Amino acid sequence: MESVTVLGGGSQHPSVDPLSFARSYQLEALEISIKQNTIVFLETGSGKTLIAIMLLRSYAYLLRKPSPFIAVFLVPQVVLVSQQGEAVKMHTDLNVGMYCGEMGVDYWDAAIWKKHIEKHEVLVMTPAILLAGLRHSFFKLSMIKVLIIDECHHARRKHPYACIMKEFYHRQLRSEISELPRILGMTASPIKTKSGVSEFSFWEKIKELETLMNSKVYTCASESVLAQFIPFSTPKFKVYRHKEIPCSLYAHLAIQLQSLKEKHELSLKKSDLVESAIDSISKNIAKVFSALIFCLDELGVWLALKAAQSFSCFDSDLCTEADSIPWGKLDVFGEKIVKHFSLDTFHAFSTYIPSGSDWSIGNDVKANMDTGLLTSKVVCLIDSLLEYRYIKDIRCIVFVERIVTAIVLHSLLEELLPKYCSWNSKYIAGSNSQLQSQTRKNQNEIVQEFRKGMVNVIVATSILEEGLDVQSCNLVIRFDPSATVCSFIQSRGRARMKHSDYILMVKSEDCATLSRLEKYLASGDIMRKASLRHASLPCSPLQTDLDDEKFYRVESTEATVTLSSSVSLIFFYCSRLPSDCYFKPAPRWDQKTCTLYLPKSCPLQNIVLQGNINAKILKQTACLEACKQLHEIGALTDNLVPDIVVEEADAEASGNEPYIDEQPCYFSPELVGRWPKDSDMKMKYHCYLIELKQSFVYDIPVNDIVLVMKNELGSEVGSTHFDLDIDRGSLTVNFKYVGVIYLRPDQVLLCRRFQITLLRVLIDRNLNKLKECLDGELLGDETDYLLLPATGKHQRPLIIDWLCVTSVLFSCEKFCEYHLNCYLPKGCARSLQTKDGPVCICLLQNSLVCTPHNGNVYCITGILGMNANSCLTLRDGRIMTYKKYFEERHGIKLCFDHESLVNGRPIFQVQNYLQRCRKQKEKGLSKLSVELPPELCSIVMSPIPVSIFYSFSFVPSILHRLESLLIAVTLKRMLLDHGLQNDVIPVSKVLEAITTKNCQEIFHLESLETFGDSFLKYAASQQLFKTYKNQHEGVLSVKKEKLISNAALCKFGCDRKLPGFIRNESFNPKKWIIPGDRSGTYSLSEELLFNTRKIYIKETRKVKRKCVADVVEALVGALLCTGGETAALLFMDWLGIKVDFHITPYERHFQVHAEKLLNVRQLESLLNYSFHDHSLLVEALTHGSYMLPEIPRCYQRLEFLGDAVLDYIITEHFYYKYPGLSPELLTDMRSASVNNDCYARSAVKCGLHKHILHASHELHKHIAETVYNFGKLSSESMFGWESETTFPKVLGDVIESLAGAILVDSRFDKEVVFRSIRPLLEPLVTPETVKPHPKKELKELCQKEHYIMNKPIKSRNNGLTSITIEVEAKGLLFKYTATARDKETATKVACKKVLESMKVLVLHGKS
């Protein structure tokens, strides 16, 4: 079959787009690869990647977005993804995406891949990613225009390269689908084989590769063509004579190791572990044993010792380098057993190593070889390296076959090289071994250090044979001979510098290996000749039984799973099921019964097959059937990925939706109005008396104030009352409706002029803005209400003090001859000369004046019996006359020095009197009054008593509260319009729910938020539990997060325009809108709330996403506590959270004989509840590790439900039992009661741990430790956070799962749950016994005292987590490191210890 050349339905080829510096053979290869699928077979370093880049440049016009097509560049090693990706970026203008497993691509769904495909034009990735993408139908071959396959010689057997070609390319090729990608393979050796060195045998292998790749090989005619451009390393054989370690030593150590192995295997058989666990641990012990025997035989006693160190992590430095040891599927207990075996072998080797601080393995290498500490092979390596020790800039790679060899040789070089040179060494090993692993990040860092010369020698496995581009590498040593031609060529190609050497270490007795390596040297020319001789032949059709292989395909997406891929898909599905540290869910195949058992959290329990076919095929068939059934019930999506993958991707996408934090701030329409233009009619107004009552004694009384509005306030707001927090005490504010009044336009104009003047002066404390305010239009469309002084009670029913209002009209000319009956002090004149002329003293002493010489304003409260010639005592003790003082200080010569001075009181400071716990004192009033010469005073208002100014200084705070209440009223009405049928919620609760802690008022939303959060969690959980009966706990949790996460609640809130109602800033009187003042920068814009109610926007401000979510939760809590669950559910339904509490039968399709598994009678007595369905009790106590088939489910779903109901009923209990509880205390009580440690203690206290069904040895051991330590806890530790050990989460889980089981069995009666579970949790925490979490307490202390709390330092070793907490306080460093099984416990203990130290040393001043 000829190579496919059709592109996009046509026959025209892309035009060649070469790079100017391309070599002749690269241009030739490019022209051929454009015309047909091609495998470029060229030496390492010859620039194959550049050919691929030029091919991409030629196809770029088909790839550039918005084109739906892409190019895919496949590389066999993760370390090559960034290297090749960056190369493509450098030489093209194409958008390149780079992908590897560590990015979490295994958990991406179709939507995520779609975004990346739409964004990038070239995708560089490992082949496993593309294969999975094709199988899941995230990718289609038809969308790939160019498919570049680096190191394509791997395309054989079950390698992903081969699977891509067989499962997808050749299937479509046979179907005569024309839209197939152009293929470019690249390799330095098209053959990956151990044997066969004839041209015919080579051609057979090349032909197989060409057929599979549907591509023809292109190569240069001879090596000499390439030699013009690239250097070739010089092969050098290093032959060494094998010398065995002393026989007696080897025999003795081998016997010891075998004895230790048998000893540990025997102890395993005597343990109570299940058979599968014993088998797994035994296999790992055997692996370690085999590796140690290998090291002893091949490397010597000292390196075998280093291997034992690595396996046991006995040496912390070595353990760090080895990046720990993942022991396959072993749990913590299994790891410990294997490590103990390794530690015993370490001690066995140690007895044969010379002791003493002066001894080192590098002291006498030859002597160490004679005693068996090193083998002759290791000595040969040392000698070979040291021959180059005088080369300063050495870059050497030592290739070994085994990972353990790489690790221990690196240990040897680290100790030996410093004695001879300044070289640094590292090792790089692959991650396929079950014994040791290295992170990809660590490997990349080592490669970069090697390039920069920071590392001189790398001991590496075959992972570095391919693709590593280090131009300065000048020495390669094959410590172990290459197993294949390809390995030989690839490793030789790593030496890229001129005059570099390729050393081949060979045992002198091993003639076969020597002969094979010599043939490998000639293999390059033989392969070239074979390729060139057959270059004109077309590719043969692929002969395969692939079409006969069973598969399952989803029609809608064409996602496919085959027999061979079904096993990995089932394992992947199980890996995404819920797990814990005691159990990792995995499928189990029973060969005897031909049954595939799936974990209990899987909705499908087992697959049973019958037949006499091959055992492997039978297992694959069962897995394929499981995949089919899982898809049919929705556990696998239409892309054949676990449902939780899509759910998590959707949840993440929902959480990442853009949110604009610039939100409106609403203003109540009741306070906005419009005066009809050119109208002389009287307008109707409603009057409210704002009664002010002081709880303290002060020399100035308060006056009542009249609020005059066009709109009548509702009954709740119109009769509201509250307290203001004044420095001297509290001021009670009481609203009272007093009737209707009709005002003419001129009266309204007068009133507005009065209130603007008075309030502007109070807020600004000067007259700078007043003229601008009064010159504007005062009868416009903005805030339309009046604030006027009330008459004294003896003057009523007349409510408005019009005399005071007219004070704003004062004019010297008008009032110069008018005066009141006034008392004159002895010797005082009837009038005094002011800045504007003579004024009667009665008008001056009840006036507001300004003093232009300093810009201040004062309330004149009296006439003094002194004049400008009277003496004044200054702060510095000097005495002078007022006349002299004003001349010296202000440059003013007083003209009327015999006239009496007046007493001026500085204007009152307007503050936020709504603020909680105000401690600040009024500023700027260092003197309560000053003496002023009348001739310096200009009267602004008169007559007006000082009490009016004092009373009006509270007006901004009073009106801000009124504005807030009216906004709450608007929100309440909106809720009533859309769902709430009864007027159940008071406005005060709505206001509390929309007021954040940032407002610093006496109430805020935290209590309601806590209550609402618990109800939302419960409502969503029970709805999901009933709706998705086949979904496991992991999916339910993700669905719940997606439904009620902060991001989701914020979106619901924004869709209902809730952000505009939120109060999230402390009131600033300076920003308060003075009614009628239109001079400011604010303007009110109108908005409709769902086309029914009008609201105004006065400004925008930043509101965080979480703040909106908190308000939604608080509103749920407000409706819940006033209107019950029905009101809360109606509100949630209006938001878009569809939840109902209708009781539906919970169908269960399995029968369990509970009495055979549990002591049902004892458990029901303990729970004070009799189950109707005993299978629920069994399910609630079954851990995932308990694999008996008669119990089809574990407790995870019930735990999910029980967690939510316990949170809700306990929060509800605290909320109603302690109604005066502060929000902070309610939160602390909830946190202390609703947590796993609290539940776990209760489980142990009542003996529930004895009834848990599980099969985990580690869980059994942890529970036993917990029970033992439980007796040491004091009774006080039942409250709060006293425990310093980690409780098994399982113990807390069963309390929750039992609560869930009772809830389901009682037809969702949460009161039954509370009556049953509460006795287990007694004594419940109280306000007196609750303690804050140490982490919270320490953080709050540091914030309050301005201490520096450093970022916690985290480390993990041997399954334990260590957390270090540091606090810098008063010049001292407080530091503590705590170690526990989990991060939370370690953090809690570390914070607690730091707090204790600080309380002693800092807070109490003790040394």
Automatic annotation (TrEMBL):
Task: List keywords of the entry alphabetically.
Answer: ATP-binding, Endonuclease, Helicase, Hydrolase, Magnesium, Metal-binding, Nuclease, Nucleotide-binding, Nucleus, Repeat, RNA-binding, RNA-mediated gene silencing
**Co-factor requirement:** Mg(2+); Mn(2+)
Q: What organism, scientifically named, is this protein from? A: Carya illinoinensis
According to the entry, every stretch annotated as the Helicase ATP-binding domain falls at: 29-208
> What InterPro entries does UniProt report for this protein, alphabetically?
DEAD/DEAH_box_helicase_dom, Dicer_dimerisation, Helicase_ATP-bd, Helicase_C-like, PAZ_dom, RNase_III_dom
Domain (RNase III): give its ranges.
971-1124, 1160-1307
Membership in a protein family? Belongs to the helicase family. Dicer subfamily.
A single GO cellular-component term from the record reads: cytoplasm
Indicate yes or no for the key word NAD: no
- Annotated Helicase C-terminal domain ranges read 386-550
- Tell me the first and last residues of the signal peptide: none
Q: What is its main location?
A: nucleus
Q: What is this protein called?
A: Uncharacterized protein
UniProt cross-references to PANTHER family, sorted A to Z: DICER-RELATED (PTHR14950), ENDORIBONUCLEASE DICER HOMOLOG 2 (PTHR14950:SF70)
User: Entry's Pfam families?
Assistant: DEAD, Dicer_dimer, Helicase_C, PAZ, Ribonuclease_3
Compartment(s) where it occurs, according to its Swiss-Prot or TrEMBL record: Nucleus
Gene Ontology MF: a single term: helicase activity
**PAZ domain: residues covered:** 819-941
